[in-house]
Amino acid sequence: MELRQLEYFVAVTEEAGFTRAAARLHVAQPGVSAQIRQLERELGQPLFDRSGRTVRLTEAGEAVLPYARAALAAVAGARLAVDELTGLLRGHVTIGTIDWIRSLDLPGLLAGFHRDHPDVEITVVQEQAAALTAGLRDGRIDLAFLSLGAAAPDGIAIRAVIEQDLYAAVRSDHPLARRSTVALRTLAEHDLICLPQGTGVRSVLDEACADAGLRPRVAFEAGEPPVLAQLAAHGLGVAVLPESAAVGGPGGLHALPIVRPRLTGRIALAWRAEGPRGPAARALLARARDLLPHPAS
């Protein structure tokens, strides 16, 4: 019995067919069939019922499956242990990010990591902060860049990398355009254009309004600051944005800091509090913490 046979057996089971399993394994379909037949001969029992349109496990196949998966997992674990000991990393890392971070050189960070560890596959996903947090908790995401309010989510460790004051952005003919700053109480009297609830910037605004006993009038929500700026440029209200998005927004917008109180949002590198699960993810976290800026620096 060979590990290759067990690998083919598990692939056929999960793909419910020899052709799809062969495509997944990047081998010819007759080779998969031949290895499965050899395994069946060694075990003395058919492992698959081939009579239908899709192949199904026989009773013997059901009994063998957990042992085959355990054997493959043990081999993968042994390889990881040796690779970690010798400094050679393999595996897969998923890193999540909100898709509007302009001041972080994430491509540069990943390029340097890939040069040092070319056998690690990296996936980058872009989602809102709430979805990224859920992905960190359930293990689908190893590391993430989140927009946060004052507190870190439960079960998540963070390191802040960017802090920005929140600004209001209005069209040049808006009443607030004559001001150089705007107090939170005054801001709450106008129609607001905000990021959705659960995002870091929105959490900062909502928490500050709750503390002041204010109920802001949110007229429009959108998932990206540039879209908020465009809506404000069309005169639809006051966009609440990070400083970089407000000051660098469309022409004709007037940006003014929110004061009394001053509101500050954060972008943070985040990971599971107990640490990333694999050695590759741990290595990427260590590199990110070393190379990324700190707001105090």
Automatic annotation (TrEMBL):
One of its GO terms (cellular component) is cytosol. InterPro entries: HTH-type_LysR_regulators, LysR_HTH_N, LysR_subst-bd, WH-like_DNA-bd_sf, WH_DNA-bd_sf. PROSITE patterns: HTH_LYSR (PS50931). Residues 1-58 form the HTH lysR-type domain. The keyword Transmembrane does not apply. Keywords: DNA-binding, Transcription, Transcription regulation. Signal peptide: none annotated. GO terms for molecular function: DNA binding; DNA-binding transcription factor activity. PANTHER family: HTH-TYPE TRANSCRIPTIONAL REGULATOR YBHD. Belongs to the LysR transcriptional regulatory family. This is LysR family transcriptional regulator.
